Amino acid sequence: MQPGAYSVIAAALLRQRHLEIATNNLANASTVGFKAERPVFDLHQTEAPADEIRPLGGDLVRQSRWAATLINYSGGKTQHTANPLDVSIVGDGFFVLQTPEGRRYTRAGQFALNGSREIVSADGFPVLGVEGRAIRLPAGDKIVIGQTGEVMVGNAVAGRIRVVDFPKPYKLFKQNGAAFSTIDPREEGTPVAAPQLVQGSLELSNVSPISEMVALIETARLYEAYQKIFQSFDSMSDRAVNDLGRTQSIA
To answer: GO biological process: any one (predicted)?
Structure first.
């Protein structure tokens, strides 16, 4: 195989991963609280032994490699709704969900009530209060969620929504949808003393569909270009094998 083919294959695989990320961002452009991801590449060059001669230059051993996948934690646009259980956070912080796999953290405040009248996320996971338990609402008509998270039904206080934050830059694992987990399950964040919540409001996805479409098209074209370059290398190898060893009669 031509030496440069390895670099082309490596670059094509990275673009394939980039396509997957851009596609996932686009698929979640309407997911409440979703945070877009961005791939980061760098250039890796292997060191050749001092006595190794590379007549075509060291550039042939340079390869792009995956450096990281960064999460854009910036806030998405907010949308006002008529649902009293829709809540958005102004500024930093995350809601806390209790899942079978442990606590999850999210800015998706599209809540509802389950059969036990507990406040749950769109996926059905209990939303924790400041005491670390699910918030169960008594029967009543009007639900009011105050700016600092107090949940009231009529004149009765049912609990207070827990909002936590983590040191920046955030080191969180992205889970399904708009939820995150911590590296160490024992790390549960620091409670925000005076969160600012807005009832009847949702933080939307921060994905820019136009930017993602542009990235998708550019990456797809690059991937196709790498395929053509690799086909050229393959053709050169075929000619080397089939033509160079062929003898011709001298007239």
So the answer is: bacterial-type flagellum-dependent swarming motility
Angle CA 197–148–83, to nearest 5:
45
Dig out the tokens for 177 from the structure.
């949808």
Closest CA to 98 of 161, 50, 155, 11: 161
Cα–Cα distances in angstroms (integers) from residue 115 to residues 24, 83, 127, 129, 153, in the given order: 32, 18, 14, 18, 17
Nearest to 192 by CA among 247, 130, 138, 142: 130
pLDDT tens figures, 8-47: 787 888 888 889 999 999 999 999 999 999 988 887 766 6
pTM over 0.70: yes
pLDDT tens for residues 149-193? 999 998 889 999 999 999 999 999 999 889 999 988 889 999 998
Report the Cα 62 to chain-centroid distance in Å: 28
Strands (E), 62-220: 62-71, 78-80, 87-90, 94-99, 102-106, 112-113, 119-120, 143-145, 150-153, 156-160, 163-165, 172-174, 179-182, 190-191, 196-199, 201-203
Question: Residue 34 — φ and ψ, nearest 5°?
Answer: -70, 145
Backbone angles phi, psi at 118, to 5 degrees: -90, 145
For residue 112, the cross-strand partners are 120
How far, in whole angstroms, is CA 167 from its chain's centroid? Answer: 19
